[in-house]
Amino acid sequence: MDWGMKNRLSRVFKPNTGKTVMLAVDHGYFQGPTTRLENPRKTITPLVPYADSLMLTRGTLRNCVDAVAEVPIVLRVSGGPSILSELSNEEITTSVKEAVRLNAAGVGMSIFVGAPNEKQTLVNLGHLVNEAEEYGMPVLAITAVGKEMNRDARYLGLACRIAAEYGAHYVKTYYCDKDFEKVVDGCPVPVVIAGGKKISEKEALEMSYNAIQAGAKGVDMGRNIWQSDHPVAMIKAVRAVVHENATAKEALEIFEKESKK
Ligand code: 5RP
Q: Which NCBIfam families match (predicted)?
């Protein structure tokens, strides 16, 4: 792996723990002004000091994040359909050159295994890896987003492994209660989990804890942080799980204490 690639990865995966708390704020690229992300700047600004990276589109980056912010950027570079149409019909919408210009530490795109446009999104991933490697730019493959997929270890393991085989440098997927360690074991690159729909803070911290215990290298979490009534308290609690080996119970205590401030 070349120096640029390693350097960019180490900006996202903190070298002292090898793990990461990425803040996902890219939802508007197909969902529009999602609840609590209606005004991205308002949502993002208080969380920036606690995020190991922001995962977002170039539009939100340019308009809603100050260029002096020191937080590493993982740029979503795929898109196409909105929530009103077939989600899997994505193409690459932002070039790697643009990601370099924006000083990104990585690029991210979705693949849709088992969906109508599976092949198109996997070929997109192959092409993106080809282009990104010319620039030493790590590629995050985002798996298992979609409607009625059965998100069990078999399906998630299939999607993550395929992403790694195409050359993704790390993979984001959903957590599943049963056999998540098999998903991680079968994927030769780091796995981070998305949070999914908003659940209670207790449940989200338990999920994060279980994922880390099963070998995940962190989270790329959105709604379970910024849809919380206390988003800063929540990201601090998630950080404790990811970087400080806190149990879910200890992290919940952090959340409760911090949410009273
Ligand atoms: C959607 C995404 C989101 O970033 C991802 O779903 C993570 O956010 P959340 O924790 O809210 O699920 O990539 O395509």
A: PRK08227.1
Name 65's Cβ contacts closer than 8 Å, sequence gap at least 6: 41, 44, 48, 54, 56, 71, 73
Tell the CATH superfamily of the 3-259 domain: Aldolase class I (3.20.20.70)
| Chain position carrying tokens 């994927």 | 187
Going by alpha carbons, the residue nearest to atom 8 of ligand 1 is 222
Alpha carbons within 13 angstroms on the beta-carbon side of residue 194 total 24
Regarding the beta carbon of 142 and ligand 1, being less than 6 Å apart is answered yes
140 phi, psi to nearest 5 deg: -100, 125
Q: Is the CB of 65 under 6 A from ligand 1?
A: no
Q: What is the pLDDT of residues 2-50, one digit of tens each?
A: 999 999 999 999 999 999 999 999 999 999 999 999 999 999 999 999 9
Q: Give residues with Cβ within 8 angstroms of 12, minimum separation 6.
A: 20, 22, 52, 53, 72, 74, 105, 106, 138
Q: Is 172 a catalytic residue?
A: yes
The token pair at 28 is: 């508007």
Where along the chain do its domains lie?
3-259
Nearest of 22, 185, 16, 41 to residue 106 by alpha carbon: 22
Query: Which atom of ligand 1 sits closest to the CA of residue 24?
Result: 4
pTM of the entire structure?
Answer: 0.97
- 110-145 pLDDT per residue, tens: 999 999 999 999 999 999 999 999 999 999 999 976
